[in-house]
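look at this record:
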Amino acid sequence: LETRSVEWLGKVSYPLYLCHVPVLYFVMSFLRSPLGILPAAVIGFVVSFGLAYAIHLLVEVPWNDRGRRIAARIA
């Protein structure tokens, strides 16, 4: 459980949980007919992981840092 890939998956697990259903729904609704179900699902999963990583970097990390700074001021 100490490999980089498992650590990365742990970091993006919550954003992935939040975004995978809407992304898969959106991708499947637009790409299922032209590409087929399996390629559309693979694209949906790839997009879900990419979006989860972006949410982790752009939302989670900055707000966690702000929370730590606020807690340090209070303490």
User: Anything to note?
Assistant: The helical segments are 4-35, 37-74.
